[in-house]
Amino acid sequence: MVRFRWEKFVLWLLLAAVAAVGVGQLAAWLGGYLRPVLVFPLFVGSLLGGMLVFLIRLLDLAHRGSVLVGVLVASVVCAGSEHWGCYLQAHREYERIAADWQAQTQGLTALSPQFAQAVQQQLPRPPGTFGEYLRRQVQEGRQIGPWIIQGGWVWASWWLEAGLTFAAALALLGATMRWPYCSRCESWYRMVRQGRLFPKDLARWAPLFEIELPAMGKNVRFRLLECLGRCSAGRLELVWEDSDGQLQSRQLELDAAQREKLDALWQAAASEESSPPETASSQDLPKE
């Protein structure tokens, strides 16, 4: 069982909020150019989820309650940051329009106070405070595709977009949470070796694990996973295509004897002077 850690939880919330602010500002900028209905919040949620996945891997955080709270907080912060970014854009747009009007009518307004007053009336209203900006959007309406919605429907659309962002981020994190985790050293498993297996290698590996391996064909890949503290002998994952072209996989928890025999096979293959395509080719990855 994964233990709750206050220090990880607090750091996770802070980093998730910072990431959410950045994603929200980026969403506000991109939304000014292209904002497809329903697809855009899913894209934002995927981007946010990818950053949150990086953070839980960085912090070695696997406590489900902590992760869920962090995703919820990040989704709300992201939505608020996006609205704040749109508010800042509205301010900049108003200042640009006002400066253009002033430059174009500077001489005429000096001659006629009435004309100056008329010019001021033609200028759009300034955004005001952030709260006033949101209230104006609710009152004046918001365009979604070919429709313009007003009042409570604007708030409903905002909550719907925040919910889609949350769902997309949670889906990515949910997939990541299925990755093996060691509760002893409190770290995610890392891939330390990977490679391709050939039929001759499968014949050697089957008696090693004392299991009956299914017909795997020629395109078989393996990867070896270990936790940071190397608390166990590791986990071996096999991936192959069946006769129908569908990807299949199998996970094996290794014991110390099996890991020792497996390492011996790899050392024997590496010591051979020539390595034809009938030997396992593997690539060592740097240990973290």
In short:
The protein is of the alpha+beta class and 288 residues long. The chain has helices at 6-31, 39-59, 64-104, 106-111, 113-122, 130-140, 152-176, 199-209, 256-271; strands at residues 142-144, 147-149, 181-182, 187-188, 190-197, 220-226, 235-241, 247-253, 281-284.
Q: Order of strands across the widest beta sheet? A: 8-7-6-5-9
The count of DSSP E runs of length 2 or more, i.e. the number of strands, is: 9
| Total domain units | 2
> What sort of overall outline do the alpha carbons produce when their principal axes are compared?
elongated
Biggest sheet details: 5 strands, antiparallel
- The chain-level structural class is alpha+beta
Helix content: 55-70%
- List the helices and strands in order: HHHHHHEEHEEEHEEEHE
Distance between the termini: 23 Å
Contiguous low-pLDDT stretches (5 residues minimum) are 278-282
Radius of gyration: 29 Å
Assembly state here? single chain
- Determine the mean pLDDT: 82
**Count of alpha/pi helices:** 9
- Tell me the fraction of residues in β-strands, as a range: 5-15%
SSE map:
Blueprint: H1 6-31, H2 39-59, H3 64-104, H4 106-111, H5 113-122, H6 130-140, E1 142-144, E2 147-149, H7 152-176, E3 181-182, E4 187-188, E5 190-197, H8 199-209, E6 220-226, E7 235-241, E8 247-253, H9 256-271, E9 281-284
Antiparallel strand pairs: 1-2, 3-4, 5-6, 5-9, 6-7, 7-8
